[in-house]
Design a protein that fits this description.
Low-confidence stretches: 5-14, 630-635, 718-729
Subcellular location: Cell membrane
Number of domains: 5
Strand order of the largest sheet: 12-11-10-9-19-20
Domain DUF4131: 56-202
Number of helices: 26
Distance between the termini: 67 Å
Region (Disordered): 705-729
Shape: globular
Domain ComEC/Rec2-related protein: 243-524
Protein name: Competence protein ComEC
Radius of gyration: 29 Å
Helix content: 40-55%
Length: 729
């Protein structure tokens, strides 16, 4: 390696900076493998960023690159490292491509009431009623589907299905919801890779036939959830059940919102923290038990035995709670830590998290695009890097006796909250558009409660549950959960506890992530070059221009953002989740309705019964919203278009940079760009930017392209169409 760097030094000018950089490269050479999972992630993002599906032959690309890197690693290490990184990019791309090809196609679901029959795979308790996941479902008399369907049962349904039962119910089904706006989180892609065909709600009581044998962990999960919620009613029991089974569906909305606004929502998502606590409990109890038996302690390595016992307990907990991405990451790292303990190596290291990230990305490439993977790995990466950097001061505090150890615990809790919060806040802004200002204070109380009271009591309750003796430990767990809920509600009520903010653009989040990796993966001073990249990513929202107008994919809602707030036009059945997603994208908490008559937003919106003239800013071009005629007015399906509304009759079509309608626009201003019911029926949600020179329009289909998870362009009906099919109205 040094010979190759010496040749590079001869080929380059040799100012002090160049020599210093080459010296850093040589000193950090053992760290470059840490970038392999980063390169894999880049390959996965490259695959998901395409607008057309690549050929399967691309999946063969990584193997020659990686083989050549292995061949050259001794003779040309610099070239081998470059080939390995290129091979990792290709490997991530190939993994995503192969997972997409292996997934079954998304079926066309009927849009009318259907009898659905299938085997219950999972049951979620809700604040009112239950939700079931059906495997191999049959729709009427059709062959069973290869994908699962999620059905919400009626709140008053007396049926109590359990995993393994056969369930039949009449239901209305719908596919996964399209993105709320171009560039929003892709629920259809998430459903595609998770094996879901769609969801629906029951129209009558379900018919249940008990099954012969329930799936092991699904059955345990349902039984534990029922026992916990019976012993601890209300929100306390729902939160306790979430911590022990991974299901958050029964938590009341107000308590969930309070925990989210106080920065404690991560405690509900069974994650690395919880797996680490469980493994730690298993480790500590086993080591104490071995130490209590001197004859055994003299014959075995108590630390190694305790590490294996903790790993087994953590693995069981991971399977019980659903094996989410943060839990798999934590368990993979725990397995590596156990191996390190058994072999006498340093336990926690960046190599462990790099290997865990690579394994998760190979097993589930689509996880990279979700907040769970991103926030989990960002937090752990930052914490391990900070622990490496602060190892010296920590050792110095330990040398000061019990006062130093106490100070180390307190400072460690504060530092953990600060470091993890700083690393994950941009990801929370990107996905949720919320900023929690007092998360450090809330976590300083809630994390110790969870670590030292809630989870140990919960583990004891699980251990005693087969004997029916879980009541006392569940009561103790309930006290801790109630204290956590009170903490969350108190902090959430503080002024400015949670602020709405426009989400970071994807490129800004990528820049922050690259800077975070640069800061954490290197050791030497050039690591600080990552800080400007992180700051630029955090400020990227200032350089990003959100859309001025959004039109929903179902054609039931549009909204315009003005300096005076958001104004919306909603038809019957407009989707609440779409509205909330729009408000997050604009950093707003609410929206007013466009007036039926008159002006709003200080004249930026001027409406009549038939139309609205809309401007996001005084200097911007105008959009014209054409409204549905009053109910008493006829709606002709054929023949000449109805009269122009007053705003067009008086000024002509040249006034509008774009025409918008939640109904089809027929025969009006054909040379003017338009977004109407037909547009969203074909191409999904639309975003419109209005500037002094006109309008820029972007559709969801133009951004996502033709991918396996994107529904194809609807085929036109054989008969002449003046409107979209009736089911889209």
């Amino acid at each position: 390696m040094s010979a190759h760097l010496a040749q590079a030094q001869l080929a380059l000018p040799s100012p002090p900076l160049a020599e210093r950089v080459l010296g850093w490269v040589a000193a950090e050479w053992d760290r470059w493998p840490l970038w392999l999972p980063v390169a894999m992630g880049a390959g996965i993002l490259l695959y998901f960023g395409l607008t057309t599906e690549p050929a399967l032959a691309w999946a063969a690309l990584p193997w020659p690159l990686l083989a050549l890197a292995l061949l050259l690693r001794g003779r040309a290490p610099v070239s081998a490292a470059g080939l390995a990184l290129a091979g990792a990019v290709a490997l991530g791309f190939a993994a995503a491509l192969l997972h997409a090809r292996a997934a079954p196609a998304v079926p066309d679901l009927p849009r009318t009431a259907t009898i659905i029959t299938g085997r219950v795979e999972a049951v979620d308790l809700l604040p009112e009623g239950r939700r079931v996941v059906l495997a191999a479902p049959r729709l009427d008399e059709r062959p069973p589907l290869e994908r699962r369907i999620r059905i919400r049962l009626r709140a008053n349904d007396p049926a109590r299905p359990a995993p393994g039962d056969q369930l039949s119910v009449r239901a209305l089904l719908r596919p996964a919801m399209a993105p709320a706006y171009p560039g929003a989180f892709d629920l259809q892609r998430a459903a595609y890779f998770s094996g879901l065909a769609g969801s629906g709600f029951a129209l009558n009581a379900a018919s249940v036939v008990p099954g012969d044998e329930a799936p092991l962990f699904s059955g345990l999960r349902s039984a534990i959830e029922a026992r916990v919620t019976a012993a601890l009613p209300g929100g306390t029991g729902a939160v306790a059940a979430a911590l022990l089974t991974g299901s958050q569906s029964a938590i009341p909305a107000d308590e969930l919102a309070a925990l989210r606004d106080s920065g404690l929502a991560h405690l509900l998502s069974v994650s690395g923290l919880h797996v680490a606590i469980v493994i730690g409990i298993g480790f500590a109890l086993t080591r104490v038990a071995v130490a209590a038996m001197p004859w055994l302690a003299l014959r075995v390595d108590s630390k190694g035995v305790a590490a294996v016992a903790g790993l087994v307990l953590g693995g069981a907990y991971t399977l019980l709670t659903g094996s989410g991405v943060p839990m798999v990451r934590s368990f993979a790292m725990a397995a590596l830590v156990t191996l390190a303990v058994l072999t006498g190596r340093r336990a926690l290291s960046l190599r462990a998290i790099a290997l865990a990230a690579g394994l998760v990305l190979l097993a589930n490439p689509a996880a990279l695009t979700g907040p769970s993977f991103q926030m989990s790995f960002a937090a752990v990466l930052a914490l391990i890097a900070a622990a490496e950097a602060l190892r010296g001061p920590g050792q110095a505090l330990r040398m000061r006796g019990w006062r130093g150890c106490a100070a180390l615990v307190v400072l460690g809790l504060i530092a953990t909250s600060l470091v993890a919060g700083a690393a994950t806040t941009p990801f929370g802004l990107h996905h949720f558009g919320r900023l929690q200002l007092y998360g450090v204070a809330a976590n300083a109380v809630a994390v110790p409660l969870t670590s030292f009271l809630v989870m140990p009591a919960g583990m004891l309750a699980l251990a005693l549950m087969p004997l029916g003796l879980e009541g006392a430990p569940l009561a103790v767990m309930g006290w801790g959960v109630e204290a956590t809920l009170v903490t969350g509600a108190t902090v959430a009520a503080w002024p400015g506890a949670a602020l709405s903010a426009p989400p970071l653009p994807a490129w800004g989040l990528g820049l922050f992530t690259l800077g975070l990796c640069w800061l954490c993966l290197w050791r030497l001073p050039w690591r600080w070059l990552g800080v400007p990249a992180m700051l630029a990513g955090l400020l990227s929202g200032l350089a990003s221009t959100p859309p001025d107008i959004l039109v929903a994919a179902d054609g039931r809602m549009l909204a315009i953002a003005t300096p005076h707030g958001v104004l919306a036009e909603r038809a019957s059945g407009a989707n609440r989740l779409t509205r909330e997603s729009w408000l997050r994208s604009w950093g707003e908490d609410g929206a007013a309705s466009l007036p039926r008559e008159g002006a709003a937003a200080e004249g930026l919106a001027s409406c009549s019964a038939l139309s609205c003239l809309l401007r996001p800013r005084p200097e911007a071009a105008a959009a014209i919203l054409l409204r549905q005629p009053p109910r008493e007015a006829p709606r002709p399906r054929r023949g000449p278009a109805p009269p122009l509304p007053p705003v067009l009759a008086e000024t002509g079509c040249g006034l509008a940079a774009v025409m918008i309608s939640l109904e089809p626009i027929r025969g009006r201003c054909r040379d003017t760009p338009r977004v109407d019911r037909f547009s969203v029926w074909r191409d999904g949600a639309h975003a419109i930017w209005l500037g002094p020179d006109g309008a820029r329009i972007l559709s969801d289909r133009a951004l996502r392209g033709d991918r396996p998870w994107v529904p194809p362009v609807p085929a036109p009906r054989a008969q002449p169409q003046s409107e979209p099919p009736a089911e889209t109205e």
